[in-house]
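Sanity check

After download, print the first record. It should look like this:
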Amino acid sequence: MTKLIALYRKPADVAEFDKHYAEVHIPLVQQYPGLRKLEITRITGAPIGETKFHLMCEMYFDNKEAMDAALVSKEGKAVARDLMSFAADIVIVFIGEEQS
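Expected C-alpha cells:
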C-alpha cells in the first residue's frame, strides 16, 4: 500500500487548529476517491524532551496510481486548498510505501 503522510508542527493556536482539522479538513480528506484507510495520531511526546510536532495523518491507498488519481481529483484539489488555507506553514507532506 501507498501512504500519503501529513506531519504537522505545533500550531500557534492548538484549539483553533484542532477545531478546523476535525470539523473541516478530515471530512474533506475522507472524500478522497480510493482512500482505503485513514489514521490520525496525536503526537504526545518524545523520548527525550518535548516534540515540535502536534499531529500525523496517514492516508492509505492501494498503490501510487490510486493516490495520484485522488490527489488530482476535485476532492483532492479541495483538500489541498483547505490545507494551504490553515496549515501551509506547519505541514510536511510525503509519500511512503508499506513494507511487509
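If your output differs, re-run the checksum step. Summary of this record's structure: The radius of gyration is 14 Å.
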